[in-house]
Amino acid sequence: MKITSANLYMINLPLQSAFKTSFGQMRTKDFILVALHDEDGRTGYGECSAFSVPFYTEEFRNSAYLLLKDILIPLLLRQEITTPAQLTNLFCAIKRNNMAKAAIDTAMWDLYAQKSHRSLAEAIGGNKKEVLAGISIGIQPSPTVLVQKVQQAVKAGYQRVKVKIKPGADYQYLKAVRNVFPQLMLMADANSAYQLKDADHLKQFDKLGLLMIEQPLESGDLLNHAQLQQQLATPICLDESINSLKDAQAMYQLGSGQIINIKVSKVGGLSIAKEIQAFAQRHHIDCWCGGMLGSGVARAVDIAAATLPGYTLPNDISASQRYFAHDIIKPEINLSNGKVKVPTIPGLGFKLDWDTISRYTIKENKL
Fold first, then answer.
1. Burial class of residue 90, CB neighbours in 10 A (0-12, 13-18, 19+)
2. How far apart are CA 298 and CA 318, in angstroms?
3. Any alpha helices (H) in the chain, and if so which ranges?
4. Which of 15, 158, 303, 336 is 20 to 30 A off residue 132, Cα-Cα?
């Protein structure tokens, strides 16, 4: 494969409602759509999920846009690429910036799948025809409102519910949900809102039979996560802490957690996500695919990733209408009996909705 040109689209896609976490709230999903055009006239698409400010990782959208435009895509143009895995070496001199790299990696996998006349899931080695869907619910104003949101999610068919928490909006909120839904696969996501000194408070969560507590401590703090896991019966899942295969290996060796949330965008794309999944599977570590409030392009990639055999738990792959009045793909992603069907069309499996893309694009570059 040889990339001859590319387009970048900076997009602000409105959310149905504000999404609140421990570090703030969002009313739009701000992202970059990358389109790579090859010498045979095909186009592959990828999404850079970097937020507008660098509160989640060191990346933010404006910096990622410049990196893509001025460095990464110029490095890629006219290169002969046999497999997307080659991009790891091509970009090795550029430190981190995984979300910008992931946009190119996933677009190349889309092209690779199209060229081989396979679905993206088939091209990466997936073996599922449908994937289990979970839902993420932001921090709510009260336990009562949270229970109402969970009731709506369960009625919609979601098999696992993730609740965002922070100090002051955690145990009592989760307890209220558990009282109404004693059998629900329920988990909490702290987004690094706690410290090791909060261990006694977090021990209360063991009473609730949670599937996991996700990323309770700082992202780089594998040692304290290991100490915390020793004190908790509830499995710790690491998200922000896992940005590479080496991070997953360190987690395993230190005992920092029992579950990994593999976010394709955050680890640098499908090529690295496959490596982490394979390592986790060899060491009997449960995995699931997390999202970044991504548009349909990112969710199409997540669906493919979740078909890999090492993904053992329900994924953060919700229906398009859960977050967006208008997604950027056709058909939009839908839920059926708590599952999402895996597309069989070559590549991503979806067409792009250019009317919606044009409406919400705030900046565009052709390279």
1. middle
2. 12
3. 61-67, 73-76, 87-90, 98-115, 120-124, 143-156, 171-180, 199-203, 222-231, 245-254, 264-267, 270-282, 296-305, 320-323, 354-360
4. 15
263 is known as an active-site residue: yes
Cα–Cα distances (Å) from 173 to 4, 196, 251, in that order, read 52, 21, 29
Record the tokens describing residue 217, joined without a space: 């401590």
- 246 part of the active site: no
Q: Judge whether 289 and 262 are in contact, CB under 8 Å.
A: yes
The candidate with the shortest Cα–Cα distance to 234, out of 207, 215, 265, is 207
Contacts of 42 (CB under 8 A, 6+ apart): 111, 114, 115
Residue 262's identity, in one-letter code, is I
* Per-residue model confidence as pLDDT tens for the chain (367 residues): 899 999 999 999 999 877 766 566 778 999 999 999 999 999 999 999 999 989 888 899 999 999 999 999 999 998 999 999 999 999 999 999 999 999 999 999 999 999 999 999 999 999 999 999 998 898 999 999 999 999 999 998 888 999 999 999 999 999 999 999 999 999 999 999 999 999 999 999 999 999 999 999 999 899 999 999 999 999 999 999 999 999 999 999 999 999 999 999 999 999 999 999 999 999 999 999 998 889 999 999 999 999 998 899 999 988 888 888 899 999 999 988 889 999 999 999 999 999 999 999 999 999 9
Sign of CA dihedral 131, 29, 119, 249: negative
Active-site position among 29, 162, 166, 263? 263
The token pair that represents 51 in the structure block: 């937020």
What is the model's pTM?
0.92
Distances (CA, A) of 319 to 17, 135, 263, 277, 326: 15, 9, 17, 24, 11
Q: Which of 142, 110, 163 is nearest to 345 (CA)?
A: 110
Q: Say which amino acid occupies 246.
A: K
Catalytic, out of 29, 164, 166, 266: 164
